[in-house]
Design a protein that fits this description.
Shape: elongated
Structural class: mainly alpha
Oligomer: single chain
Radius of gyration: 14 Å
Helix content: 55-70%
Number of helices: 4
Order of helices and strands: HHHH
């Protein structure tokens, strides 16, 4: 099992961060940006994926494994 000193080192978090950047860029375009509800919802969802890695900072190993297990599907599928 890999050892991390901070959550920014986790591949899942890096990929989620890139996904969030892309979603913000795409959702800023005119046609998408007019639908405020959808734009806000999809942006919040992308940030949520990235934020789930925060479980690394929690003291309970079981809690972190639960959160990171959810992220593993993201990192393997692309």
């Amino acid at each position: 099992m890999a050892t991390f000193k901070k959550f920014e080192e986790i591949e899942c978090w890096k990929r989620a961060r890139e996904l969030t950047r892309r979603i913000y860029r795409i959702s800023s375009k005119a046609a998408f940006a007019r639908d405020f509800g959808l734009k806000d919802q999809i942006r919040r969802a992308s940030v949520s994926v990235m934020s789930n890695t925060e479980g690394y900072d929690r003291s309970g190993t079981g809690e972190f494994c639960s959160v990171s297990g959810d992220c593993q599907g993201l990192s393997s599928g692309g």
